[in-house]
Structure of Acyl-CoA dehydrogenase/oxidase C-terminal domain-containing protein:
Amino acid sequence: MEPSSSNTGFFQKQPIIRNQWHDDVSLQRVAKLFLPTSLLEEIAPDLSKLADEVLAPQIFTWVTDAERNLPYLLGSGRDSFGKPQSKLIVTEGWRKLQDFGLAKGFVALNYDTPSLGAHARLVQFLRCHVWTGSCANTLCPAAMQDGAARLLELHLTDPDSRSRLSPLELSVFQNAFDHLTSRDPSRAWTSGQWMTERPGGSDVSLTETVATYLPDPSPAGLASPPSEGVPLGPYSVSGFKFFSSATDSSCAVLLAKTSPSKPVSAFFAPMRRQNPSLISPTGVEGGEELNGITIQRLKHKFGTQSLPTAELELKGTRAWMIGGEGQGIREVSTMLNITRVHTTASTMGYLGRSLGIARAFAAVREVGAGKGARVSLAGHPLHMRTLAGITEGYHGMMLLTFFTLKVLGLDEKGKRKGKGEGGWDTVPTPAEEMVPYLLRVLSSLHKSYVCENAVPLVYQCMESLGGVGYMQNVESEHLNVSRLFRDACVGAIWEGTTDVLASDTVRALKHPVQGKNCIEAVGWFVLSGLDKVKNGPVKDTLKREWQGLKGKIESKSQAELLPEARGITFRLAEVLIAVLYLLDAAAHPGVEIEAMCHRYLRAKGFVVDGSNEDVKGGLELDQAIVYGPGNQPSKPSSKL
Ligand code: UCC
């Protein structure tokens, strides 16, 4: 027998990461369920190409660079003579990934492709889904770019808001909107979102940042780039922001108080301005500097390490007010509702990629099967049962996420229906007047549920690779599931924690004016969804479950419901997922989806079938769930 050495003996065969568009059965199913067939056929070639491009070796080289060479503050924030300077350095990998994302229009698509109408969000997030696992967190600034674009779009298009803006404000907002929705990386802007301060994360009522109306003395300063001649805003903002993600953005939406007695207001600030009195190192007069912003320090985080997150001191930052004075929560909610959707969709993207890695590993890894027999993990009954369980949970959350995206698309572009209507109503489409109420509930509920419940599943994918899964794997970046796990963990924390969002879901359902409409909208979806599926006892169970939740919400006060907010939100999410699972299984039937649906309903207690088996079905069914029908990489082992 030859002893092994560092270069001889067993070496694991390389796991092959497949094109996620073709390999991810759940992604294919949600696309088929939510999009009209003709539109899906039209976009599929581009999605397939994109899913190849995001797995290119160059992309992973940039990811490794962005993760390994972390952003830093040149000279710890000082020049050679000790004078403060805030020079943030990000690596080439980060910049290239950012440029790739901007050029691919991961945000722009929602704004520059009117023919997609209400389907735009669905198409946008199918694309984001395959990008997430390769983007090294560049989708974070993209999320805020999207939120800022949407907020400005509303002000630029809503007749009432428009009428309140001066011609100058209109041109400033239009200019920013054009940059935020550009696909040209040399022009495109990402945005920051500065809310959090030291007194509170989710609670912005104690904001200590102060905005003073102080129109700039003549001549008004210019924002960068000077060629556009855009003046700086009339407000001077000073304060301290404790968490600023994506400090390399070109602009920010921020909250500040105009008076101690008024709630917060929202502001738009360019990140940089022109300063004629600056002297360059070669003596040239005039130049660009941060707009009254000092980077105090960069944060050290558990995950999202490539992302430059900073503490910022604002001193005389020039800004424009967005919306009315004291209306900051209302304004920033528009942005938050977009960044929350991005957070959830990214979490699903991390889980989807992690499952892809787990499938690839299982296809090539063999383990002992007793008495000298060997079996591939893809032929191992317990391993396949575990991956089938993750797949079942993943698909349920994908359904909820894409349902939320459908409603978001309707809210934004309801009157502009996209082409290819056939199949659009397979999942019931709410009436126009119901959409805002359904969205109000879903936008908190989906993040609260998905971001919390997906993390253990990403962890299980990491675990399924054994010790290799726990490694950083920068030498095989495409397999780096531990990076995906670290990055996925933030989803349940930023943009409002699980508890904050569960409380907000209950707040929406108990709202003194709109609460009844919110409850009615959710009830409408549960009942009309169930109407579309075949009769069965589970329909009555789900109706009863909904009635029980509704009764509880209606009969108790918001304060009484608060300690139960997580339970209520999660159960409501599970009812919605159950309805969506039934709709999916009915629309595109198959042994695998029916089994997944049944297992889901049983696991959540919606079906009690009296059997003492955990799930029905054997290895072949589990393999078909994991790899998709007909795609099983290995025949079941006869030795087990
Ligand atoms: O900025 C951050 C880091 C950026 C990282 C970006 C990553 C993007 C994802 C990347 C993916 C890869 S993290 C910032 C984290 N902070 C938050 O998320 C804030 C969490 N806090 C909340 O959600 C709070 O509920 C607030 C701030 C929205 C509201 O606070 P308050 O103090 O409770 O406000 P009020 O005054 O009680 O509520 C004002 C009104 C209420 O309506 P009325 O007055 O009619 O009763 C609420 O129902 O605002 C309403 N409201 C909403 N309306 C509250 N939330 C919403 C909402 N989401 N939509 C509509």
In short: Residues 595 and 616 are 8 Å apart (CA to CA).
